[in-house]
Specification:
This protein has 66 residues and is mainly α. The chain contains 2 helices and no strands. It starts with a helix and ends with a helix.
Length: 66
């Protein structure tokens, strides 16, 4: 497997995981009775948090491996 394919696959997996976390956060917010704008805001925050965590983890691993 080429390096490009591996990076593309990892990016897809992280994006799908971030979408799942955002959907779960939105669902939980809706169960709490939040309005739809608040649900979207919480889902967006969760999505951004997962992507930020993935970027920080990738940076830390890249520094360890090089």
């Amino acid at each position: 497997m080429t390096r490009f394919a591996l990076v593309l696959l990892a990016t897809a997996v992280v994006t799908v995981f971030a979408l799942l976390v955002a959907a779960a956060a939105g669902t939980l917010a809706r169960f709490e009775g939040a309005a739809y704008p608040a649900v979207l805001k919480r889902a967006a925050i969760a999505f951004a948090a997962v992507l930020t965590l993935a970027a920080a983890t990738t940076d830390a691993l890249a520094q360890l491996l090089t």
